[in-house]
Amino acid sequence: MEKVSLAFLGTGNAIPTIKRNHTSILFSYKNENILIDCGEGTQRQFRHLQISPSKLTRILITHWHGDHILGLPGLFQTLAMNNYQKTLQIYGPKGTKNKIEAIKNLVNVQIKLQVHEVLGQFLNLPDFCIESSPMSHGTPTNAYSIIIKEKRRLDKSKLKKLKIPNSPLLKNLQEGKSIIINGKKISSSQVSYLEKQKKITFILDTALNPNALKIAKSSDLLITEASFSSEEESQAKEYKHLTAKQAATIAKKSKSKTLILTHLSQRYENAPQVIEKEAKSIFKNTKLVKDFDQITL
Asked: Which of 67, 127, 155, 220 is catalytic?
């Protein structure tokens, strides 16, 4: 079974603190390493976890506020100095192409980039797909879901027990077909099992809106911002952010399995339990992450 892993490189809000860097999350699956946002200082966060940024394959940008993108110019320069050979795929909301061009003019980017402005499902590969949905944050903003597709896997112990050799016939079994071995019919269900799809959703800066609930539906892991407690709901509304209570409500109504809270404001630097406790009162399976936390699915 192929594992999905997430590394939280930065879990802070607009102003970084001693404990929390600007927002950035690394999603890894097979040969894919996808960065969700790239706040200032993200490169050093890679160093702390001893992960090479040269492994990056894609970047998903939620929106173009500084605390989510100011790490991009330096990252591009580091990749160039490390002789990055891939074409880095960058996805974001409307305006992303112009913003990347501005960065190119600023730092003379010397790596290959391919930039996409996306909405809806925009990537559909054999193993996974990615979809986006517009959020409400006063500037073009996307939430993203990465969906690892359902896959039929062969049980090696059962293959051995039935003396099925390593041959092209295995492909038929993996596709759900039956085969004939020594005159005996073997069905796919006898030697295989379905690995269910996994859905990981990222909802960062946004006010509460219907699209958040739609894209979060049935997520195995729902990662959302929680910039305010419900006591500051009026401020959350003014700045178009979520409260911990609203994030938990999205998780509950969308029937998500686990809620991960991030994007913590400096006002809760010494009392993060306020945010986590508020969310847990509505959705029990909640965790507030800190910088360098890692999660595996």
From this structure: 67
